[in-house]
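Posting this for the archive.
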Amino acid sequence: MSRKQGLRRRIEDTFLSRVQEANPDLETYYEGRQGGSSKTVKSYVKIKGRNAELWKEFNSANITSAYRHVLDTVVNRPPSSRPSRSMCLIGLEESMKNIVLDWCKKRIDEGLKLAAAVIQKDLGQPQIEPSFRVEQINIEKDPSLTENIPEEDQDRPGKYVRPDAYVMGRADIQSGPMYMPLEIKPSSLWRSSMLMTDEKSQAGLQPLRQLGTYCKVCDTRIGVIITPEEAVAVRYYDISEWEVGCHFMPVPWSNSGDQLTVNLAIWACAALSLNDKYHHIVPKPHLFPEINTWQEAPSKGYYRHLYSGRYDSKLPPGAIIDTKENSLEEVPERVVVTIGSSAENILRGQRRAMAQQELRRRCLLSVKSGGSNKRKAISDTESRAKKVARVDPDSTIK
């Protein structure tokens, strides 16, 4: 093999080339016969139309700049076979799950492990082995999350939330942090174009509210909605106890090459969620830096990316230099979830963790206020945290 051929082989075998590969053409049919529904479910978190905006910073240039040290890694060749024509006929929602399992998962999984090994080493975090799983699971909700919601506003309160897919720890364990939930929808019932109007309908906001509920329960701020036409990356922030706002970015299924692709978008959302310091939902989006944010590195003349830990001597276009004024002093504790059947006591210790999260959120809200307001916010929240933490975390939730 010549040097030129070797270089070409190296470029073709990078993880970036894998997630930039063109997706198989999908053909939808009879989606109107789905069992699903676009009706409003009151028990999901609330989102007002004006608080659902485009996530403009979520683009291919910012992602590749942040994670170039991972994306340029040479990986094993992906399976050469593409899904059969019959598999690409998308009717029921279950058939789209099969595509995500057979196509997306095979191209993303190895990159998740690369991200965990490289990024977490650079950031000094504990090593994990994340796994992209496509299966519906039960995660029990902490009753304290919805205890102040009137019963008339909970038409389907339930004990569980059930994402269609998710990124967690190793595939052979049943508990750990939920890094990112995913929801799969038929395009006959929902498209992101329903969010591109000034007056956003409840039907358009419904999947955002559903995914936001999963993120709220698992205290992770990023998730993805997948349809046969697109993937929509969503980042959430707190507004009140059971209301959130979000930024979203649609990625067409047909994108390939240098465009932001569906597989690159799913992987990037998961990679952002692997950062222990900036994974959780905070009250205002500006309290967390945007994707293209860098800090001056200890080594003179170098910069370090805030989310990926990547070092570079040259800043990319549009880079933001973080002044460290809003940096968190401590790494927040992740909520640990256990997956299983509805007969099990699935989630243990979450009341205490949620109290700690509430304390952290209140502290974040007061970062820029300072003075007596800051002291009062922390004092009030410490009292509430102590009260909730007295509840036996291992008791069965009735």
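Residues 4-11, 31-37, 341-353, 368-398 have pLDDT under 50 and may be disordered. The longest strand covers residues 230-240.
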